[in-house]
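ok trying again, last paste got cut off:
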Amino acid sequence: MDNGFFKNIEKKTGVNMKDIFDLAASLQNANFKDENTVRGVIQRVSQIARKPVTKDVEDKLVQSIINDGKSLDFNTIANMLNKK
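nice, full thing came through this time. structure:
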């Protein structure tokens, strides 16, 4: 994709695309059955999105991902954060 496209997204959302790409790369080999890994990803997404996550919401996200077999991708986490 063209660099202008990403700059436009950054301008509209305030989210640094490098952060998004770094997050995506870190997800590739992550163990999503490990609670610490899942918590780390949730916290990172929260930072990138500039949406604080309460301990209660974080616990629910972790439980949903680890115990309920939800797939973990950026859209899943973003949608869960928006429901809080």
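cool. Residues 3-82 form one domain. The mean pLDDT is 80.
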